[in-house]
Amino acid sequence: xxxxxxxxxxxMILMMIVISMxxxxxxxxxxxxxxxxYAAHLRAISSPASEATLEALRERYGLGEPVWRQYLFWVxxxxxxxxxxxxxxxxxxxxxxxxxxxxxxxxxxxSTLVVVLGLAIPFGIIxxxxxxxxxxxxxxxVAFFALSIPSFIVALGILFISVFYFGAVSIGGLxxxxxxxEPMNWAKFKSTLEHMPGPMLxxxxxxxxxxxxxxxxxxxxVLSQQFIETARAKGLRERVVVVKHAARLAVNPIISRVGIHxxxxxxxxVIVSVILGLPTLGPLFLRAVLAQDMYLAGTIIMLFALxxxxxxxxADLVLAWSDPRITYN
Amino acid sequence: MTDGSAAATSRxxxxxxxxxxxxxxxxxxxxxxxxxxxxxxxxxxxxxVGESGCGKSITARSIMRLLPQNASxxxxxxxxxxxxxxxxDVTALKPNGATIRQLRGNAFAMIFQEPMTSLSPVxxxxxxxxxxxxxxxxxxxxxxxxxxxxxxxxxxxxxPEKRVDAYPHQLSGGMRQRVMIAMALSCSPRLLIxxxxxxxxxxxxxxxxxxxxxxxxxxxxxxxxxxxxxxGVVAETxxxxxxxxxxxxxxxxxxxxxxxxxxxxxxxxxxHSVPRIGAKARLSPVGGTVPSLLEMPRGCKFxxxxxxxxxxxxxxxxxxxxxxxxxxVKCWLHDQGGGTGR
Amino acid sequence: xxxxxxxxEAQAPAPEEEQAFRPLSVRRLMWRRFRRNRMAMIGAVLxxxxxxxxxxxxxxxxxxxxxxxxxxxxVAPQALHFLDDEGGFHVRPFVYPLTxxxxxxxxxxxxxxxxxxxxxxxxxxxxxxxxxxxGLIETNIQLFGVDEGTIFLAGTDGRGRDxxxxxxxxxxxSLTIGLLAIVIMVFVGxxxxxxxxxxxxxxxxxVQRVIELIRSFPQLPLWMAMAAIIPPGWPSIxxxxxxxxxLAMIEWTxxxxxxxxxxxxxxxADYVAAAEVxxxxxxxxxxxxxxxxxxxHILVTATLAVPTIILAESALSxxxxxxxxxxTSWGVLLSEANKIEIFRLSPWxxxxxxxxxxxxxxxxxxxxxxxxxxxxxxxx
Lengths: 329, 342, 380
What we know:
The structure holds three protein chains of three kinds.
Chain A: H1 2-28, H2 34-44, H3 51-61, H4 67-76, E1 85-86, E2 92-93, H5 94-129, H6 134-147, H7 151-164, H8 186-195, H9 197-223, H10 226-233, H11 238-250, H12 252-256, H13 258-276, H14 281-291, H15 294-322
Antiparallel strand pairs in A: 1-2
Helix pairs in contact in A: 1-15, 5-6, 5-9, 5-13, 5-15, 6-9, 7-9, 7-13, 9-11, 9-13, 10-11, 13-14, 13-15, 14-15
Chain B: H1 4-7, E1 12-25, E2 28-41, E3 45-49, H2 56-64, E4 71-80, E5 88-89, H3 98-103, E6 108-111, H4 125-136, H5 141-154, H6 160-163, H7 173-185, E7 191-195, H8 203-220, E8 223-228, H9 231-237, E9 240-245, E10 248-254, H10 255-260, H11 265-272, H12 311-315, E11 321-322, E12 328-329
Helix pairs in contact in B: 4-5, 4-7, 5-7, 7-8
Chain C: H1 5-11, H2 15-18, H3 26-36, H4 38-55, H5 57-60, E1 81-83, E2 89-95, E3 98-102, E4 109-113, E5 119-120, E6 122-132, E7 137-145, H6 163-199, H7 201-215, H8 219-227, H9 236-267, H10 270-277, H11 282-318, H12 330-337, H13 340-345, H14 353-374
Antiparallel strand pairs in C: 1-2, 2-5, 3-4, 6-7
Helix pairs in contact in C: 3-14, 4-6, 4-14, 6-7, 6-9, 6-11, 6-12, 7-9, 8-9, 9-11, 10-11, 11-12, 11-14
């Protein structure tokens, strides 16, 4: 088990190196660089910069260098916790900008995942046990519609309701305004938790519906298997048969699907955060991409991939623990 | 084991009378069992034989009350009477109520056909055996584990104190069927139902498992219902036999009587379709096909395939005629009243 | 090679159809099963209507989508009336013309209905010019309109542009981008998937690693980064194709994976082995023996992927990384509505969400129905 984890961790580091390269290349691909977009911005506010100034800026950020040298320059700072500077944000170190938001993104994504699974699994079980009954039809119909509503529309809907019906004057945020800029403490954490259900609904609704449907299907498959009858033949209560024997097995494919599910959650987190103004990586990433701020954008997309890698690793570990048929190779 | 002469004197443990089971399907109601009557004596073995789909398993599941959701018992009774407890009519119990759950795994135990799938893949075999023990006895976890190990030992599993922590996928099919037997017998049931326990196993393993079943039955003095399509298995293990055809018992009696001197044309046809070592005679398969439960013939259900069918056979269904030695046959050929029936 | 797996499968179940002794062609049999799925039929009909509308937007849209009328800014949807003030019933519905006045206190234009002058809705009216069939026919007939005043059934935006016309024209982009990207995706995904399964070896290994690498990024952020590659100076039609390619370039991976899996199973099928023994070359085996057998699977996967693409385009456009003016799409329209004042004062700006949800739902229904037809054994 331990060697399995170590092997996976080593593989993950290898994967991260490749991912950092790909991230950097993708972020580098747009024609021009931050200085071009900065120059365009200056022209737009009619105070164009001289060619010499722009060249000096390029020099300063090393933008004139070949891509591989820029990449090495960027990566060499990683061990020190230096992810470059955000050119579009008055040269603030990327790490300072990204770290608090990374925590928020991680908190939001993982708690959405947990809540989605925590609701979808019991709903799926209930639907399967009441197969073709009214509850099953209700759940399945609602799930089908929920599956077709994209997260950003749900976010818009939440915002619309809070503005139109409850007269909200400012949008969202993930904690009360008074905690802005404060380091994380208990009161701020509590306030964050209170603000989470809305974003979680927007991000997780589709996944909740999809996972419920899959759980229902898995349950129906498992309930028709022979060992369920063995369990009943022992004289166990139906509830024990369903939960301890059927659901315990039906949940395994759900765990292995976390790897498919997590990217959707992260994508949803980006767009929902933009709409609801949440202090997560999403809005920062959008700004960085629009401004061609390559170190910032590159770092964030790399962190997204890291969340995925960690999520997949955790899912694999949980699955290995949950399904004895899986060997650690 | 076969000891026909003493059979009549034993006490009945379970009596199935005129049992009727219907299934609700997309095509309407389908009658899967129609007037099945059986009796199992204490410490004896009853074999139920028939082709697939004849209702053998439905009968067994009716006794356990493990019928699928779309099936219901619409008539008849199943009386269970152990020496020290009040008799129960199993058909009158709530489907998943406390009483039937108290009987299941405790007084009645069942072994299934597919040893590969009849154990949960995510729990150790020990945990699965202990589950029943903890449910039906006062033993604590440690004692239950001891008992599980003891049971594994008794079903001849080597190194039981190690195997108790093994997962089913680490065991072979024969081993798993032994685990199933250990599980079924862990609470010393009065009645053990084995539904095609050896069909999925190799022939060499089959003999071992049948031996083991008989040993365990003798040791526990339990009654055994063995369901099979293999007349050889019946001949080897059972005291009594009931031959089933499309939801009816067409012939029943002691194994010696029924297999030695079959009276129903269907039983005869079945016997002729079994290969025998040394016999040079050509095998004759039972002609025709089993009628669909949806389109049953009007009279005797076997008449369309029967070589000796008379005209009455096609128009009305025969009742069960009692013969000497506690036998019964559901066939007009044995109508002593001269063709008029009851 | 006529008897394919799917065809045999399609004939095996469904006993009620076997009772009709006349053998039905496989296609008729599938069509029958599909028609029985009511939700899939509803999806198919809805989508047909929507695609018909976007095929000739000039006919269905009462106004030009990109020309505003400063006299009618943020007009709420005009109601269609059947009853006039005297309680008289009109078979032909009518609208009341509007006149705008600026409220001196709030500085907002307030519109009042001219109840004296009801305008009956007219069909096949002559309005603005547009062309049909790629410029072959020039005409100016619209489905409906009014003689005097305006008919804004979905209201107008901040520049006085008719929302209904904008939604129809936005649908043009949103609905075609899904199909276009899917065509590319199917082409690339099938080719790479089958080749990867058939060739195996180093080719397969590389393809699988590349797919894994693409998949190790969450889709939306990757799409955002890729969309940023499109140069800001490009004309909007180029941007449209650029976005299409970006969307397809990431989505093909899932199809390629599935096709590879199915193709690997097919590779060992007896009839493929038979073709190999008979001396068929790789292209023939792939195109004649393998791809036809995968076609129903490809169709289902592609149908179910359309909503993903449509939503991705909407999300990118919503974030300002997608379609740009003068083109519009549902995502662009929704991004224009994403302001607090608009939520409060002009909520009709959010209507593009309705066709978007309907489209996604219809494709989901359709895909589900197709899956049932193509794979009747799926346990779902």
